[in-house]
Structure formats: C-alpha cells, structure tokens
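Record 1 of the preview.
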Amino acid sequence: MDDIREVRPDDMQVDVEPGVIGDDLNDSIADEGLFFPAFPQSAAFSTVGGMIATDASGIRTVKYGEVSDWVLELEVVLADGTVVEIGSRARKTSAGYNLVDLFVGSEGTLGIVTRATLDLTVLPRRTVGGRAIFRSLDDATDAIASIVRSPIDVATLELIDPLTAEIATAYTGVDLPDTPMVFFEVHGYTVDAEVDALDGIFRRHGASRIAATEDESEMADLWRARREVGHALKAWDPDLGLEVVGDVTVPIGSYPAMIGYVGEVAAEYDLPIPAFGHAGDGNAHYAILCDQDDADEVARAHDASAAIIREAIERGGTCTGEHGIGVGKRSFLRTEYDPETIQAMQEVKRTLDPNGVLNPGKIFE
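->
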C-alpha cells in the first residue's frame, strides 16, 4: 500500500497510502513547491503509516510541530472490518469528536490506517543551516533555552553532548573537538536577521566557533556529525552494543538539567550514555552502550534508563517524545499517568477492539 493517490496543489494536500516512504513523498511533491515538514530524521526509510502510528516528529518540530499537526483525514479499518473515514479535508473543524487525534499515535492498537490526507506547506525560499561549538554542556543547553524563549523563528535546534561528539567525529573523520555542539536551521524568505540573532545568543553563551551557510553541500558537511550519530554509535566500540535507545521530553526550562542528569546517571552506573536530540522542543535522546554478553552490565543499562525516564516524568515530562510505548515502556505508562487515566485508555481500547486482535500486547501491560 505504497501509492501516492492524489496531490492537490491548490489545497496544499496529498492523499497517501500508509506504505509510502517519507522522503519519496517529499520528492514527489517538490516540483509543486510543497513539502511535508514534520517527518522524523528516519524519513529516508520510514513509512507514513508508521509515523502516524507513533505520532512521530523530528528535527523540525520546534517550527513545524509533530506529524499529528499535519494529518487532516484518515481512512481506518476497525477491528470488526468496518471502514470509517474520520477527520476533514478542511484545515479546521469542530464537528464531533476529534477521532483523528485518537488514532494518530495509537500504535496500531485501535485500527489500521489505509489512507491519510496530509496537509502540506510551501518549501522555504531560503534555508540557512549551521553549527555552533561550545566549551561546556551547560553553555550549550542554556543557549538553546534562551533561543526557544526568544522571538527567533528557528526551524531546527539539535544538540550533541561531548561523548556523542567524540563518537560522531571518530566515525565521520570530521576534524572537530570533543565538545558540545548545537546544530540549527532557519527557514523563510528573509533569514539574515534570524541568523544574526542566533549568532548573538550563541556568542553570549560562550560559543567558541560558529559556522553557517546557505549552500546545500556545505550545510550537509556542517551537519554530518549530527546526521550520522546513529551509524556512529553502532561502530564506535566493537565490544559494546546498543542495549537501550531512549527518548524523553521535558518542558524546555528543564532541558539543561535533564541533559546534565543523563551525565550523572552515566557516572553512577559506570556506563557510556551519549545524549543528543531535538533540543528545540525539549526532546532528549540517549543511547546506553554496554557489553551485551555481561548480564550485570545489561541490567545496569536498563536500570540507568529507568532512572532517566523517572527523572523526566518528575520534571513534568514524558517517557517517550516520539518513539511510542510499544513493549519496552509499558510499565512507565503507569508512572506517567494515574490509574484512572490508564483505565480510561483501556476502556477506549476495549470498545474499539473488544477481542484484542489489533497489535496485542502493545502499550498496556
């Protein structure tokens, strides 16, 4: 089910089947001067259906929001085979219950999406991207918080901590110090003032080196250390495997402390835990590396992840910003929500799927 059924440029909309790959969709509508801005960084191999199922988001969430912000209408097959159309092609509606937002992020447990109508936006006339290098992690995270609280219309703010920088530079061969880095993009018609304002905030927070460009090739080089983190983590140490890859999100005011806490947990559990992520919306990704043949290290890795998740929830955040609950985080749903809220969720599940045939065992224990 990988057809792009119809593009309506005048409406700035597209109808797609769930097997369409994110980058393929954007490639197909680029000639119309349009794009879908909310895809995650995995859009090169992730399907639209999967993104809808997890309410995915990515590096541009700080400006464009999550996938759910761009889903207008869905065709859904319910557990008994009934086909329903929910939502509207209109950009806003207050008619009845908002069932679209119920199914988006439901991880396939309430129904199967067979078509989606997505809202689109115009490709930015100009894109400037760059990288700022900081002496300390505190300086980098404080700069991010200042930018988010400012009127600067930034499209992307990404962070990698010193360990992630070390791992990424070793993999890419880029000649950079093993210090925190913040990556950014600004989109628009006139972006020079925005870039100047970013430069000013970076410098006030002690950035030692700032580079920005509008050239796509140069931008790709500047961003390489961030874009290839996933590959770099797997290749860093042949004796260490990726036991946990997590994502938590906290209110932006707590982001500097949350990133600092990941470092404290790494020291306490004596494990390498590189931290990085979509800093502009308070999303912290972390990877816990360990000897996967050592049962004690594996146990410590999961205990360390649990500590990070609990800290995020205590700070008013969530156990998952964009990866979903699945199986791995089912127990933390009960940490994040009270029993009455969980019960309400389960009643929705039982109503729409009384026999438990849709993605059984996911989300709820």
